[in-house]
Amino acid sequence: MGGNKAWLGIGAFGIQPSEFAKFATALAVAKYIGSVNFRMNVLRHQAVLFALLAGPMLITLAQKDTGTALVFTAFIVVFFREGLSPVIPAAGLATGVLFVLTLLVNEIYLYAGIAVLWLVLVWAGRKKVINACFG
């Protein structure tokens, strides 16, 4: 399917290892979040959670299965529910919007939009970032 190398054939039966990776990632994230001394506002804990997502996501992308790799971004909702600063999902959403805008608008408008967006994110997240780093 379009260069997708995500399926393994076993006789007439085919399996997709990335489905098992989603399940294993969910279990690993749940175990880490459920640990006794876990706090979402600690930057080191956030880095570990995002690393738990990045591994299987990058392997899935290497198999040219972008749709399945995007499923891993749904874990951001879980992280947000556990206390992740809204600045991080907002920055990810802004990055996606800017990616689409690069295809649609003139370059000068894009630079102006990036500057305004950056100022809004800095203004909204300055206290959260300081608390996350030193809290």
Short description:
By secondary structure, the protein is mainly alpha-helical.
Strand ordering within the main sheet: 1-2
What portion of the residues fall into strands of 2 or more residues? under 5%
Unreliable stretches (pLDDT < 50, length at least 5) are: none
Q: What general form does the structure show? A: flat
DSSP helical segment count: 6
Largest β sheet strand count, sense and barrel closure: 2 strands, antiparallel
Oligomer: single chain
> What's the helix-strand series?
EEHHHHHH
How many extended strands? 2
The SS-based structural class is: mainly alpha
Q: Structurally, how many domains make up the residues?
A: 2
What number is the mean pLDDT? 79
- The helical percent reads over 70%
The termini sit apart by 48 Å
- Radius of gyration (CA) equals 18 Å
How would you describe what is shown here?
The mean pLDDT is 79. Strand 1 and strand 2 (13-15) form a beta hairpin. The protein has helices at residues 17-33, 43-62, 66-71, 75-81, 87-104, 107-134, and strands spanning 8-10, 13-15. Helix 1 packs antiparallel against helix 2 and helix 5 (87-104) packs antiparallel against helix 6. It has two domains: 1-84, no CATH class; 85-135, no CATH class. The longest helix has 28 residues, at 107-134. It has 135 residues and is mostly helical. It has a two-stranded antiparallel sheet with strand order 1-2. It has six helices and two strands; from the N terminus they run E-E-H-H-H-H-H-H.
Secondary structure: elements and pairs:
Blueprint: E1 8-10, E2 13-15, H1 17-33, H2 43-62, H3 66-71, H4 75-81, H5 87-104, H6 107-134
Antiparallel strand pairs: 1-2
Helix pairs in contact: 1-2, 5-6
